Amino acid sequence: MLFEKEISQAKPVEFYYWKSGFKIIAGLDEAGRGALAGPLFVGLVIFPPDFYSPEIKDSKLLTPIKRNELFEVICSKAITYSIAKAEVEEINALGLMGALFLAMQRALSSIKEIDLLLIDGPFGIPDYRGLQKALIKGDRRSLSIAGGSILAKVSRDRYMQKLAELYPEYGFDRHKGYATKEHLEALRRFGPSPVHRKAFKCFERF
């Protein structure tokens, strides 16, 4: 029986699952779902049993400098980790959820064994054959999901920095493809680029 109740912030949910006999617990989270441009990234992390670091938390609560520092910590402390993405063309073709599940499957494809998969949000992965648990606000309840959120966010931010060099007029290095005032003004001036998610309804007006 999987735990449904909220947990104390003093202990990540993994501690309860470890005590219940689950040994290999993976956490999965995404970055870039709400952006108007660029790919969607997914990070998966498996920490050793009883590992804990109070610094590893939801990537949205951390500064860019701290996220980059923790990226290296997570990669060195994890038993294993995986980073995957869904391209803009796949987002346009499959929709956000279809592309998200595709990226998640890609992240899982390199992992040989998982006792329990924890996923941030209300939805599990369709057709996943293992045991999985979707956690609302999972990046604030699960250490491994928080770790995955950091890997996904840092990886995507670095990717958007590269896109900023290819398309400097959009300012991707500053807003990372999200719908800021600067980004929307650039879209009005220049129209969408090849890395914009043109299947989104908002692009009908550009």
Automatic annotation (TrEMBL):
<keyword id="KW-0464">Manganese</keyword>
<dbReference type="GO" id="GO:0006298">
    <property type="term" value="P:mismatch repair"/>
</dbReference>
<dbReference type="GO" id="GO:0032299">
    <property type="term" value="C:ribonuclease H2 complex"/>
</dbReference>
<keyword id="KW-0479">Metal-binding</keyword>
<protein>
    <recommendedName>
        <fullName>Ribonuclease HII</fullName>
        <ecNumber>3.1.26.4</ecNumber>
    </recommendedName>
</protein>
<dbReference type="GO" id="GO:0003723">
    <property type="term" value="F:RNA binding"/>
</dbReference>
<keyword id="KW-0963">Cytoplasm</keyword>
<dbReference type="InterPro" id="IPR022898">
    <property type="entry name" value="RNase_HII"/>
</dbReference>
<keyword id="KW-0255">Endonuclease</keyword>
<keyword id="KW-0378">Hydrolase</keyword>
<dbReference type="InterPro" id="IPR012337">
    <property type="entry name" value="RNaseH-like_sf"/>
</dbReference>
<feature type="binding site">
    <location>
        <position position="120"/>
    </location>
    <ligand>
        <name>a divalent metal cation</name>
    </ligand>
</feature>
<comment type="similarity">
    <text>Belongs to the RNase HII family.</text>
</comment>
<dbReference type="GO" id="GO:0005737">
    <property type="term" value="C:cytoplasm"/>
</dbReference>
<dbReference type="InterPro" id="IPR001352">
    <property type="entry name" value="RNase_HII/HIII"/>
</dbReference>
<comment type="function">
    <text>Endonuclease that specifically degrades the RNA of RNA-DNA hybrids.</text>
</comment>
<dbReference type="GO" id="GO:0030145">
    <property type="term" value="F:manganese ion binding"/>
</dbReference>
<dbReference type="GO" id="GO:0043137">
    <property type="term" value="P:DNA replication, removal of RNA primer"/>
</dbReference>
<feature type="domain" description="RNase H type-2">
    <location>
        <begin position="23"/>
        <end position="206"/>
    </location>
</feature>
<dbReference type="GO" id="GO:0004523">
    <property type="term" value="F:RNA-DNA hybrid ribonuclease activity"/>
</dbReference>
<dbReference type="Pfam" id="PF01351">
    <property type="entry name" value="RNase_HII"/>
</dbReference>
<dbReference type="InterPro" id="IPR024567">
    <property type="entry name" value="RNase_HII/HIII_dom"/>
</dbReference>
<feature type="binding site">
    <location>
        <position position="29"/>
    </location>
    <ligand>
        <name>a divalent metal cation</name>
    </ligand>
</feature>
<dbReference type="InterPro" id="IPR036397">
    <property type="entry name" value="RNaseH_sf"/>
</dbReference>
<keyword id="KW-0540">Nuclease</keyword>
<feature type="binding site">
    <location>
        <position position="30"/>
    </location>
    <ligand>
        <name>a divalent metal cation</name>
    </ligand>
</feature>
